[in-house]
Task: inverse folding
């Protein structure tokens, strides 16, 4: 492997890391509250609201059922409007975030659904308001599950970031595509694949460790 | 004595997939300040629904639930939350937050009422001392036994100095020894703080041990209500008899004689009634079951006996027991 390819791979690792980090962060900033709303407005929950639940649920389902590659292309005008360009690492963060939000929201919802309803009843009987109960009882109780879901989400975003290479996003995915696929450089292809696998494994392991440290049951 | 609760003609109807189900039918009762009030019934009788109307975790379909003269149904959400600060509740499943330590769990109820952090900690430590778990303060609930978890729940419930404690099958998940310890603790708190306690249970032994008065709920109806001593020695309703009579007495030998239940309290315990019966009347009875129980601290004995099959002989025997001051009730088969 020549030096410039080695440099390209190093840059790729850094770009992949950047894309994964920021897309995960932004998708949680939006997805976490959405998941909480989906959970708390569903039937029999504290803030039951059929209309809100239906509308958000519908949006989430639609975005989630679009193949990510299609979403990438569809979002090009939006990305250009938002960050001024549709190629590069920064531009790739936009579709990655949008694609990850519904996944995060559903994951959060399912984590919160695991919380024992008795705890909610106890909080209500103590005179806690619905919002207080969610913040101080439900979310803390769901924390280990939320963290575990977080690790899965970050790994998913990492996988999606490789796809961003197709529309000119940077990162390891772009390198695999350009050198490995278009130029038949099998060694580059396999190197990037190995690096991606290692990164996913590291994230998974880290997530499981943090979650275990938090799990008191 | 002041009335803590007054329930007037309370009904509760659920609609499940279009099918109506009435969980509570015309329940009227009063709970007085400082008493331990038992609500007993078979599972599915509606007692859990009934206790949840007392802090409005369940809305009533019709009727009135008054708490110190205030109709709970008229309270706005914010007022209701405030009233709930003086109605604490403990549960069969303990319902502690597993990701928080023991002391953090106790502090939760104090945090809700807005007590500042330092005061909160002090009060929580004080409560853990009352329930005897000071040494476990930094443990997580998963490391505690069932009885210890319920003690934490009690500390959390009582930290806010409520006026009433509602116990929903609070000892049902515990073994008899631990149940006894928890009931002793509740009794102690009732006596020391004058706290009104409402206990929901399906076990007569729980009611006998600590309750002053009891309401028997059967299929959503209030079957019987009264002093525990009275209900125990002289149950009137079918549901009450079912709860009070020892289950599965032996089959009567011939199956012809009437079966009666004799109840005697501690004052008659030095009299050998059965031996006297044989000596004086010459009739014999077949003992099917016998035991002693402590009801509100007084020892009671009860015996299920089969009387002679001849009606006049049986009447003589009943007469003999009644003269001796025993309560005699016929057991339906």
Result:
């Amino acid at each position: 492997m020549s030096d410039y390819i080695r440099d390209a791979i190093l840059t790729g690792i850094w770009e992949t890391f950047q894309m994964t980090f920021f897309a995960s962060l932004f998708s949680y900033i939006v997805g976490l509250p959405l998941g909480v709303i989906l959970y708390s407005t569903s039937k029999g929950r504290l803030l039951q609201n059929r209309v809100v639940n239906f509308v958000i649920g519908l949006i989430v389902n639609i975005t989630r059922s679009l193949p990510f590659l299609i979403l990438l292309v569809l979002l090009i005008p939006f990305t250009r409007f938002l960050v001024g360009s549709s190629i590069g690492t920064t531009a790739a963060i936009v579709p990655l975030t949008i694609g990850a939000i519904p996944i995060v929201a559903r994951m959060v919802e399912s984590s919160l659904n695991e919380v024992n309803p008795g705890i909610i009843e106890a909080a209500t009987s103590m005179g806690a308001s619905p919002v207080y109960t969610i913040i101080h009882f439900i979310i803390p109780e769901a924390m280990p599950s939320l963290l575990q879901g977080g690790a899965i989400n970050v790994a998913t975003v990492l996988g999606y970031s490789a796809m961003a290479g197709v529309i000119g996003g940077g990162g390891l995915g772009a390198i695999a595509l350009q050198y490995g696929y278009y130029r038949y450089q099998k060694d580059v292809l396999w190197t990037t694949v190995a690096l991606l696998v290692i990164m996913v494994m590291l994230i998974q392991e880290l997530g499981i460790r943090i979650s275990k440290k938090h799990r008191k049951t | 004595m002041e009335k803590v609760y007054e329930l007037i003609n309370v009904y509760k109807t659920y609609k499940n997939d279009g099918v109506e189900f009435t969980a509570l039918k015309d329940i009227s009762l009063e709970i007085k300040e400082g008493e331990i009030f038992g609500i007993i019934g078979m599972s599915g009788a509606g007692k859990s629904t009934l206790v949840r109307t007392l802090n409005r975790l369940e809305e009533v379909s019709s009727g009135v639930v008054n708490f110190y003269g205030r109709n709970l149904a008229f309270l706005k959400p914010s007022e209701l939350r405030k009233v709930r600060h003086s109605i604490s509740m403990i549960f069969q499943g303990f319902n502690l937050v597993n990701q928080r330590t023991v002391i953090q769990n106790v502090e939760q109820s104090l945090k809700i009422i807005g007590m500042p952090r330092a005061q909160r900690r002090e009060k929580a430590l004080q409560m853990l001392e009352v329930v005897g778990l000071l040494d476990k303060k930094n443990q997580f609930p998963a490391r505690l036994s069932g009885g210890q978890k319920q003690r934490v729940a009690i500390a959390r419930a009582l930290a806010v100095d409520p006026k009433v404690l509602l116990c929903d099958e609070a000892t049902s998940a515990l073994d008899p020894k631990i149940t006894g310890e928890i009931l002793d603790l509740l009794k102690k708190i009732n006596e020391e703080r004058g706290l009104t306690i409402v206990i929901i249970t399906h076990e007569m032994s729980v009611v006998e041990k600590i309750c002053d008065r009891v309401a028997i709920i059967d299929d959503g109806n209030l079957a019987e209500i009264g002093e525990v001593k009275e209900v125990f020695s002289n149950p009137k309703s079918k549901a009450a008899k079912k709860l009070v009579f020892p289950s599965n007495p032996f089959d009567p030998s011939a199956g012809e004689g009437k079966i009666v239940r004799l109840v005697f309290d501690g004052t008659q315990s030095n009299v050998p009634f059965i031996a006297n019966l044989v000596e004086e009347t010459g009739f014999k009875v077949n003992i099917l079951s016998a035991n002693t129980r402590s009801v509100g601290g007084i020892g009671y004995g009860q015996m299920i006996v089969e009387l002679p099959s001849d009606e006049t002989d049986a009447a003589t025997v009943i007469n003999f027991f009644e003269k001796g001051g025993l309560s005699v009730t016929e057991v339906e088969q």
Notes: The mean pLDDT of chain A is 91.
